[in-house]
Amino acid sequence: MRIAVLSGGIGGARFVSGLRDAVAGHPDAELSVIANTADDIWLFGLRVCPDLDTVMYTLGGGIDEERGWGRSDETWHAREELAAYGVEPSWFGLGDRDLATHLVRTQMLGAGFPLSDVTAALCERWGLGVRLLPMTDDRVETHVVIDDATQADGRRAVHFQEYWVRLKAPPAHAVIPVGAKDAKPAPGVAEAIADADLIVVAPSNPVVSIGTILAVPGMTDAMRTSSAVVVGVSPIIYGAPVRGMADRLLPTIGVEVTAQGVAEHYGARSDGGLLDGWLVDESDAAAAEPLNGLGITTRAVPLYMSTPHLSRRLAADVLDLADGLRRG
Ligand code: FO1
């Protein structure tokens, strides 16, 4: 069974880890993870790819579980030295072990390798057991428009990482995936979607993770024309994101911060949208009836992935719903 997963950062990585465990028994299971790269940032001359690294470290067993990003057993000497030199940005934490990943990536990019080759090379070390693909090898960068009284029009755009890490996600007016319209899906991405038996939209941020992946021209058409069953997992539980800032960003695209609102935003496959099925938390069971009415087969299951066992169970619920949809 070929499965393609659209994933962002921490929530998506935890879900993919559970899915890999859930299909461990299926010898014919092939898992491809298409990760968001619009969070990526140049820092001190190094290319940092947070969502790719979060999936790589989580599935490779190198993640810092408590933070959900960066490396376990991390030290911060380089960061302290950079701060001692007074160089900015000091608000983004680059750990010493994590720096090695960015050094290798930057060296390979500098030698002319595309991000997809670099990612495959880095993943060699970690033995993920899944194929990790950047959504594109081209530059796509999420900028967020926020208030700024010092500007003539009272607004300015900041890189997503500054918005999220330094500014702590203030109210936003717009989210712009800069460069998206000129981007192409990375090698293997369109095929992973076209050849999939199941496509899963992971419980990642619908605006700056899933939204940016879908902003790459060709992605939504590939999903709509794929013969795969498409099942999504709500990133919103009882009106709030499990983590992150989806509640701040969904209003910028006019989407309600609810499990139902996000599903309606992705749309029903039968209506030209993306979803065949949708999982909501038990606390959002009331969303099932209206969504079923829209043609999105919806089930209420426990969505919190606070342990690997729960991630595996959620993944099993996705596979179960997909099975039911395939049988028709
Ligand atoms: N998130 C933070 O809140 N603070 C940080 O200092 C920080 C550093 C960092 C370094 C490498 C990396 O891969 C991720 C890092 N993140 C940090 C998380 C990052 O902002 C988010 O994981 C994604 O961009 C959103 O999914």
| Bound small-molecule species | ligand FO1
What is the N-to-C order of secondary-structure elements (H for helix, E for strand)?
EHEEEHHHHEEEHEHEHHEEEHHEHEH
Molecular shape: globular
Query: Based on DSSP secondary structure assignment, what is the total number of beta strands?
Result: 14
CATH homologous superfamily, by name? CofD-like domains
Binned, the helix content reads 25-40%
Mean pLDDT: 97
**CATH fold node name:** Rossmann fold
What does this structure look like?
This protein has 328 residues and is of the alpha/beta class. It is built from 13 helices and 14 strands. It has one domain: CofD-like domains (Rossmann fold, 3-Layer(aba) Sandwich). The protein has helices at 10-22, 50-60, 77-84, 96-110, 115-126, 160-166, 189-194, 210-214, 219-225, 246-249, 259-266, 288-294, 308-327, and strands at 2-7, 30-35, 41-43, 46-48, 131-134, 141-147, 155-159, 172-178, 198-201, 229-233, 236-237, 240-241, 277-281, 297-301. The strands form four sheets. Strands 5-2-1-9-10-13-14 form a seven-stranded parallel β-sheet, sandwiched between helices. A three-stranded antiparallel β-sheet has the order 7-6-8. Strands 3-4 form a two-stranded antiparallel ribbon. α1 (10-22) crosses α13 and α2 packs parallel to α5. Bound molecules: ligand FO1. Ligand FO1 binds next to α2 and α6. Ligand FO1 binds at residues 8-10, 39, 48, 50-51, 53-54, 69-70, 92-94, 98, 161, 164-165.
Question: In short, what is this structure?
Answer:
This protein is of the alpha/beta class and 328 residues long. It has 13 helices and 14 strands. It has helices spanning 10-22, 50-60, 77-84, 96-110, 115-126, 160-166, 189-194, 210-214, 219-225, 246-249, 259-266, 288-294, 308-327, and strands at residues 2-7, 30-35, 41-43, 46-48, 131-134, 141-147, 155-159, 172-178, 198-201, 229-233, 236-237, 240-241, 277-281, 297-301.
